[in-house]
Amino acid sequence: MRENPNTPEAPRYLATVQQSAKALLVLLNDILDSAKLEKGKLELEQTDFNLTELLDNVVSTLWVEARNKQLELKLILDPKLKPYYFGAADRLRQVLLNLLGNAIKFTERGTVTLEVSTSANGVQIAIRDTGIGIAPERLSRIFEPFTQADASMSRRFGGTGLGTTISKQLVELMGGALTASSVPGEGSCFTVSLPLTAGT
Fold first, then answer.
1. pLDDT digit string (tens) for 162-175?
2. Of 63, 64, 133, 156, which is most buried with the most CB atoms under 10 A?
3. Alpha helices, DSSP H only, in 106-196?
4. pLDDT given for residue 103 in this prediction
5. 107 and 188 share a domain?
6. Which residue, 106, 92, 94, is CA-closest to 199?
7. CA–CA separation, 163 vs 194, rounded Å?
């Protein structure tokens, strides 16, 4: 490629380099976030934010990825949701991109749904998919660092196995809870419960 940058393979090589660089950046950021969380040095920046706008942004970011796999990507919003909430918007976006991105990654066909509703103490967010699912013995360890549903998944789908760990740590730092349920061969559901208060 260096000798003849105009070969037909050049765009493919460039795309591979860009994808590798992006993957390394994600890995580095994940490791840095994980280290800060473990040491209790990650601080949340809380502001008033438009929740619907944030959710639309998350779905728009991953829409092309879902379309390329011919998946239906749904966003379902409870009409009782308030326009604005007070919380760590950037970290919530990070959590949702992680979880929704995983749902798309591990779903070969069908639907990935992001459903948001009000709850007694704030907001509940469910990310459901019709993907490969997670075996019970793996599900109990899904939030451990560098863990995926199966050891072979890293080779097949890529990823570090840190995304769900960091997501759980961030949600708990925000005062919430992250849980997972799954049926192998049918799909999974990750549920985020956050004590968000109304913003202005």
1. 788 889 999 999 99
2. 133
3. 136-139, 153-157, 163-173
4. 95
5. yes
6. 92
7. 18
57 shares its domain with 90:
yes
Residues 31 and 104 in one domain: no
pTM as predicted:
0.78
Q: What is the DSSP secondary-structure string of 100-158?
A: HHHHHHT-SSSEEEEEEEEETTEEEEEEEE-SS---HHHHTTTTSTT--SSTTHHHHH-
| Average pLDDT of span 115-132 | 95
Residues 6 or more apart whose CB falls under 8 angstroms from that of 27 comprise 160, 162
Amino acid at 157: F
Same domain, 153 and 97: yes
Average pLDDT along the chain? 83
Do both 36 and 86 map to the same domain?
A: no
CATH number of the domain that residue 125 is part of: 3.30.565.10
Domain extent at residue 37 = 1-42
